[in-house]
Amino acid sequence: RATATMGEVPEPSPQAPLAVLSKVELRVSCKHLLDRDTLNKSDPCVLLLMQSQGQWMEVDRSEVIKSNLNPVFAKIFTVDYYFEEVQKLRFEVYDSHGHAGVGTHDDDFLGGMECTVGQIVAQKRVTKPLFLKYGKFAGKSSITVISEEISGNNGYVELAFRAKKLDDKDLFSKSDPFLEIYRIDDDRSEQLVYRTEVVKNNLSPIWEPFKVSLNSLCSCEEKRKLRCVVWDYDSRGKHDFIGEFFTTFEEMQKAMGENKVQWDCVNPKYKMKKRNYKNSGVVVLLDLKIHRVYSFLDYIMGGCQIHFTVAIDFTASNGDPRNSCSLHYINPYQPNEYLKALVAVGEICQDYDSDKKFSALGFGARIPPKYEVSHDFAINFNPDNDECEGIQGVVESYQSCLPKIQLYGPTNVAPIISKVARVAADEERTKEASQYFILLILTDGVVTDMADTREAIVRASYLPMSIIIVGVGNADFTDMQILDGDDGVLRSPKGEPVLRDIVQFVPFREFKNASPTALAKCVLAEVPKQVVEYYSYKAFPPRCPQPETPDSNLSSPQ
């Protein structure tokens, strides 16, 4: 096992679930789309689908661009890129009809194109014809997808623009301005970075603040030239040019803090014709904030501790622990499935927890002294301190509690999720990336309190915690897959979606004959991403690396 101090990066060993994902940004434009509308031009929108287990699943969709057969979409699609997988993508272009939604009728389908993430990443820019059903060409229609990898040193910048005294382009009302920002690439081509919303009937609009990655804004080069254009919106797609200005990210950064930066918005034609022409208005950058994007290791090395809680199912369906057929049977020569799963996952988590103390809870049993059913008891029977010393301490508490309890039921896990969530909520209030909670639930059956569990998971998705559920034994775990939001978004009974996917469910039987590292790798693979997603959403940076103390060696996972 390689050990590293806080100041240096631990070497991830080959099995370590630390594969830092590459994220790829995709930008889409189309040319020569079919015209499906009789009076106006088509109003195109792009759907991005990804193939998962042979099924096409919608990942995201672009905005609708009114009345335009050569749209450049402002929407940036972000996909996770796995070098070792073939990730099939499908782009479908539809003529949108507002309220009716997108993709409902064949006659609104303007064409589709399939490719892989790898192809787009390798070629950086892919242009392909669009096809209708049955392999027919959609006229001369084509789609172009441009990819950019979000690199580790990349960040996001948040910009807030307004304009003052813009030219009025409308006869009976004021202009309806929107702003576009283009990055000028080395080959002089222009890449649309962002398009603001339209502010109706206003010559001094204040646009909503927006975030873009530094990569897409300026390819992480502060001196790269940017072209900013202000238009007067026209519902038929014939927008009127108001003016433009050129700047760089370097110049924009003068707007940090209390300062503001402003530019003359110039129409070159007017400038040539009119001697006294000054501008067609001014554009002001009110505020600029830079958010760095951090990796899992940045947080861990900044002193973020992973606090590990295990919850064990003591319901009667496990069988009498004295009987060798029981899932809780203690065989002196061979650990049972509960112990195998606990040790495999716990051994990796303990490397990220400096005090090596783990909370160990039980549910679904009658416990002493009164033998009432409890759904969140400490297996060391110390209600004031449910922590055990290391994985070995958990194993010993588990073995000594079995003879003292009566296996009962039902299988309710919401109380334990809520219990860990309360501790995580206290941690969240510190507004620091100092502790992240992993709850490992080991259960032999489908949970009884599914509605409460879904509600508890939705609440927990807003907190610094992840939930791993390992199904032990041979039950039918189909319903448990619902909790693992991979096939769709998990929702509370009222329909509220999780903020982020925090549950990983795995049946232990799939790993029965594999090495313990295979189980750990599978259930912990998502955790680095979940940690980064949570702290990025909260905009909490990593804490400063702590000075080295004798116990704070950080071991990389085995």
TrEMBL record:
GO annotation, cellular component aspect: plasma membrane
Domain VWFA, chain residue ranges per copy: 307-506
Cited Pfam families: C2, Copine
All copies of domain C2, residue ranges: 5-130, 137-264
Gene Ontology BP terms: cellular response to calcium ion
GO molecular function: calcium-dependent phospholipid binding
Xref: InterPro entries: C2_dom, C2_domain_sf, C2B_Copine, Copine, Copine_C, VWF_A, vWFA_dom_sf
UniProt-listed Gene3D superfamilies: C2 domain (2.60.40.150)
Keywords: Repeat
Recorded family membership: Belongs to the copine family.
Entry protein name: CPNE7 protein
Species the sequence originates in: Pelecanoides urinatrix
Gene: Cpne7
